[in-house]
Amino acid sequence: MTRDRTTTDAPEACGGPTAQFSTADRAAVEPIAALVAVLVVGLALGLYAGALGDAAPDRSREAAESALDRVERATAVGGVVDPTRMRNVKVPGTAAAVELEADGERWLAASGPDAPGPPRVRSAEAVAVAERRVTVRVAPGENVRGTLRAVVWR
What we know:
single chain; rod-shaped; 6 strands; 27% strand
């Protein structure tokens, strides 16, 4: 009796055993675990978006600083701010108000009809304020320390 090696019924000859899996053998995730995972991912994305928003620079603060730089260049002569030059203040592109305070006096200039008032008039959420200490000419040959403040409507 000779054996035919070309045909065999052994499973090894067909490339290995093939197993049939039932639906009970498939991997599954419990619904509670899936909900917890979705909540954790959502919370992580929310925290990331919040941190990213807080890390972004405040554009309105930059506008106030830029306006303050322009105003100081327009009103200062030799590094000393001259209050008489406040009437020439123009801040193009923004609605801004400029306030100079020194020696108990206050000078105010607005750059347009929509310009905000002094910081105490508007709410803190509505304006961006930048200020710096400057030397102010109050009389010929008399200089005092003062505060130059730019208020920009957001």
